[in-house]
Structures are given as C-alpha cells and as structure tokens.
Amino acid sequence: MLHPKNYHVNETWIVFRLNDSPIQTEKDGDFNYLVLMDSASCYILSSAMFSADEDEPSLMESKRMLKEGKAQKNELPLELLVPEELCAGELAAEAERRGIKVVRLPESELRVYTVETRTAFQEKFSGVLKP
Known about the structure:
Blueprint: E1 12-17, E2 23-25, E3 29-38, E4 44-51, H1 59-73, E5 79-83, H2 89-97, E6 101-105, H3 111-125
Parallel strand pairs: 1-5, 5-6
Antiparallel strand pairs: 1-3, 2-3, 3-4
C-alpha cells in the first residue's frame, strides 16, 4: 500500500489532477489543474493549469513542471507515479527522457495523496475563478 512513510524525500513524485470537473473562469474559459507532489513529504513541487479543451499539459508545460520540481532539491526523483486514468503522455515521456521510471497505477491507489489535497483545493476555489 502506498503511504508517505514508505518513501524518502525526492525518491518518488506523483502527478495528479486536482479538479474533478473543469475550473471555470470568466475571462479565459475552462481549465484543468495538474500538480506534481513529492510522495514522502506531500509537498507540491509544481503545478500547471491547462485548457480543458486539451487532454493534457503541453510538452513545454511538462518540461517546466519537471524543472520546477528539480529546483526544489536540485535533483530528479527515481520514479514518477501517474494515475492510469490521467492523460499525461507528454509529462510521462519527458520524465522517461530524463531517466525517471514512470509507473502507471489506478488512481484509487493514490487516494492517500489526492483526497486531502483535492478537498483543500475545492474548498478554497469553489465557484468561478477570476484570474
């Protein structure tokens, strides 16, 4: 079973979407919000908002997320956990190019990480966002 106590800081990162349905903005349309989190500390290393019309963040956004994550400890993780249900091909491919092992698993196995973070996000940003 996955749990923060089973990892060392910066050993494994997790990527997941914070929102269940697209985030609506008055000015810029609908967005999805992706976060990159350290599995041991549950610290959010990076995030990206991308148009709900797109399936996933662009390659440029994916590279930026990994770069921001690396900037936290000046190293990349050994592995990246990606929910099977999440379309994150660009991010996964870029991680693999950088020598990170990508592990796909059911999102239900990541609930220990996602539930609290999603709940806090939804409480703070419920309704329409105004960028």
